[in-house]
Write a structure and sequence with these properties.
Helix content: 25-40%
Shape: globular
Region (Disordered): 1-66
Radius of gyration: 21 Å
Biased composition (Low complexity): 1-31
Length: 440
Amino acid sequence: MAQQPLVPQPMQQPMMPQSMQKPMLPQQQSPRHYTTTAPQGLFGPKHSSGGHGAQTGPKDEKQTGGVQRFFGDTLFGRVARSSVQTATSALKMPSSLSPWGDNNPVTLPNVRYRDAVLFTTFAFVGAPLVDGLSDGVTGVFGADSFISEIVSSGAGTIVASTVIKYSVFQIVEQAIDKGIIEHMLPEEEKMLRTTNVKSLQVGIKHKLMGVDADLRFVGIYPAQSTQACEKGWFCPYLFASARTPQIPRANDFSICQFFGPFLNGDYQMAHKLLSESAHTLSLCDPNPQTDIGTNRMVILFTGISPFRANMWSTSRRPGCGTIIFHLLDGCPALIIPVSSRAPICAWSPWTLSQMRLAQYSLNPTTPGAYQAEWQHEQICEWLDTIISVPHITEKVRDRYVDVLGRSVSLVINGALALDKCRPLLGKLDPERAGIVMFRY
């Protein structure tokens, strides 16, 4: 059997403090570093939307009035709201991406099959109903705010020898102990081989209407192209759950942070992504039932798709945002303890499509183009500003910088290795796939 080629490995550099606000483009930068000292003053009281050891999690941060939601969720209300949103998006289009994170200002109303029959029955049409997912409701993940169902999985086709369970954290430690930085261990390479893609249909219930998302950007720098929309790839998750994002065209960024309004479904979403991940790299106890005294964050590569018919409007359902997440068994999840500064969720602007383009580019040093080392630096720098060092597992606390850098490398390399298994990816849209972070 031919030996598998090594996946490009993001290089780790010695680290020193560096400003997070205005990183230059990679070709203009001096050698990349990220701070090795945990920020001071970040380890105070936990954020109220944490619920460290609770299973149900905190309540929604904000709710729209019941009467407004009742009329707004009727068929006529949905059409009217989509018309207003389309007009608003068209006016903002020169300066911002659409709420779906693309260049299309049109927001179509969510018209369900039963609306044609029930439009005269005002109360039924106005109710936030969810069809076909009742069997997926589980008390473990909060039945009142979150529903999930595995709609596609290739688990039955996996060769038995490929599902060996590795102690992945020990693999990371072994690589660091041996000083192996530029190359991967055979165990790491095998762990990053994707053999199965699991599609998970999730519903984030809410009582919101016409609410703006609180987005804050880290590492802002001028955009190379104001028409590029890859940085908004994860916007559908927010807009489908009635939190309208606004991504500026003029600037690019290292990390987009979402700070509210918080929904209990966000908290349960992190639980679900963690439980469905094939491999985890944990710098603390990842079990959400265990109270470690602070919040945690799960970082992983995933893809998203619309609920039906490849139309994002079908995901924006009355009272429930419904999206399909694609989880890959060759992409490990990283879990770290975080301070009160951590956002509800965040994402890296680089997509799988950009990663592939860079791998086959004849001129990989194009200004503003994707570079694995650059993304590695961006994520590590940001994580170092929110990680709660006192809550890291004691045996790696003194060298958490090396462990964190190596773990982020594995997350990125899992995505880079997907080019070898395109037939397995199915409906995964490379323009809607990247690295996301959820706090829990």
